[in-house]
Amino acid sequence: MRTSRTIVRIRAELRKRRGGSLGLVPTMGGLHEGHLSLLRAARGECETVVMSLFVNPAQFDAETDLASYPQHEERDLALARDAGVDLVFAPSTDEMYPPGFQTWVEVTELGSTLEGKFRPGHFRGVATAVLKLFSIIRPDRAYFGQKDAQQVEVIRRMIRDLALAVELRVLPTVRDPDGLALSSRNALLSREERKRALALPRALVTRDPEAARAFLARSNGVSLDYVEVADFDPPVLAGAIRVGSTRLIDNVVLEGEHQ
Asked: Which of 32, 35, 72, 122 is catalytic?
């Protein structure tokens, strides 16, 4: 496995590998089994697997949130190596957003609902970083998790609207045995907070927004941001809660087979 920290270097590495199928798994580190499922899928379908490792400051709405995001690069690189990743692109913030950077990508309607209401500018940061990764890596396939359903929908719309030559592969949400969706932010929860966080998947499994809201309203130590049906592909019941200082999102698919 080779790790590149500059655009020039990763492009040089990729030139040696062009000709076969190339898969990209974008990550912000803090790897868990959800990320590893994406890496394994890419390894099974592509001749070359690239993982990006970049904590994107443009998608955080508060400096304290960015500062508290789990970062364990040495561990992440070891897990990537074990998963069969060929190349890691781990740029600095200045490499992705050099001085004078002023070009942004915004998926206007999708990016302003649900998460977009509570985190203004979040999806602008996501779309810009992902499009730049697509431009640098030029993958045939890009792998994302269903757990971030709105992010997936934003990226799908960006791919369609800008006629990008990349196939979007979306894999099912991976959960711990107790039902909590895997997330890098789970590491920020205390043992008691984690117990309270289980209210979110238990509410969403009702697949009824009113029942889910009522369940969360009765849950101690949980602050509800929203529970809404989202007409994504596939449709989902999506929710976001705050437990202590940690904000968690989750969703359940409402109909159809997830592809």
From this structure: 35
